[in-house]
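Hi F.,

I've been meaning to write this up properly since the lab meeting, where we talked about keeping a consistent format for the predictions we share between groups. The idea is simple: the sequence comes first, exactly as it goes in, then the structure tokens exactly as they come out, then a line or two of notes. No screenshots and no reformatting. I'm using this chain as the first example so we have something concrete to point to.
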Amino acid sequence: MMTKNADKKREQMLMFCMDDMVPQDHMLRLIDKAIDWSFIYELVEEKYCPDNGRPSMDPVMLIKIPLIQYLYGIRSMRQTIKEIEVNVAYRWFLGLDMLDPVPHFSTFGKNYTRRFKDTDLFEQIFSNILENCMKFHLVDTEQIFVDATHVKACANSKKMRKRIAQEQALWYEEELNKEIAKDREAHGKKPLKDKDRNQPPSSDGGSGSEVVKTEISEDGKTKKCSTTDPESGWFRKGEHKHVFAYTVETACDKHGWIFGYTVHPGNEHDSRTFKALYDKLKKYTPDMIVADAGYRTPAIAHELLEDGIEPLFPYKRPMTKQGFFKKYEYVYDEYYDCYICPGNQILSYSTTNRDGYKEYKSCGQICKKCPYLKQCTDSKDHVKVVTRHVWEEYLEKAEDIRHTLGNKQIYELRKETIERIFGTAKEQHGFRYTQYIGKARMKMKAGLTFAAMNLKKLAKILADREARNKTLQRYLKNIEKNFIKIEKWCWRSSPAPTLSTVWNRRSLFFIFRKK
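Output, unedited:
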């Protein structure tokens, strides 16, 4: 039977309750039940005047609006406001009824610029949500997985200019210089002179796609800088993917709970940005940190092992020219502090350079007659140089940890933990690119996105736990009812004598029999 005029109820006036319109298993209802949002008032109290000015928008609602955007992967704030206008669940979550006006899409941006800019508010929100997860004993800090992903910046790859690349100080430079001075003194070498850090001024140039080449020497290193978002970095992956991007370095546990994050330009290497994230992870006192080959450096291995943390790195192939001997084919003699080449010749210690590498050189006159010369070196003076870092022993300890029984299975958990987090964030939460300009706004996006992911995970677990508890309670009530029925039935029909009664009757029988 065909139904007609299905739209005749459009102009009807109804009375209903907003709470009844949102399903009990809706994600926003579960999230609202999982966390108490009143902690936001304490975080933003200093940003508002206590006794002057007109009443402001509720700060909790102000934070919930971008949280909805990142939770459902809505592409922009304008689209988020349009969705809130027609979505009953969104209105219920924000505390709005069907007739309340929705804030303008520029409201959050203006509040961010005037109140929240240059603050750690969003990182505090992320930390508070993570603390709530820890209260339920859901987080395991024994093993922490670390990795980085790239988020495309809101910058045209053709609008750039070249600047002189200024050398940045390494986070372990001071400690490394002490180790170099100590090693050179042990070998009878003079200490190195202080490095001249005076850098030439950066070049000036036009805007747009114009590439500035003036005042840049041929030997000087340059880097591409975006004119739209100068804080982003030129990221290269493969032959075709060349864009301006940000690097988001993240840490999580084996259950997928996100512990921390840092944001850096896309052209900075993971080993250089590791220290900022590691400082946030120290308070969790992990037993092991699992990272990919990009973190397999002597400085990181030294830092972790000195703090009593086991680093777990994968195998990294030797970066040697094809047809030449690999570095592991040169055997290091720790007692005599020298290397032995495949031709059984000695490479003696020469010096320790500024980068912290000890250089071991062979004798050119002997190598000139060696049958393995073409597989060893192609230098004009026939001298083979093998380098060894002053912290190489820490890398060797990390290699021993990699071969420990069971650690291979731990490293394979990366694809189920940190890699899955990046995939979920990009597929479901709009983390492939950012429409914000600047590193500070990118930090806000990363903090709220990861907070939403932790919050969604917490809400689902608590909902499942509550459902299981209700099922168990119903089961126990049924058992109790059945037990009471059986007990009453037995008492009415034929009450069984107690053991004491049976024993007393038998005792009397034997007593009278003896008499």
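Notes:
Residues 161 and 211 are 5 Å apart (CA to CA).
The chain has 18 helices and 13 strands.

If this format works for you, I'll send the rest the same way.

G.
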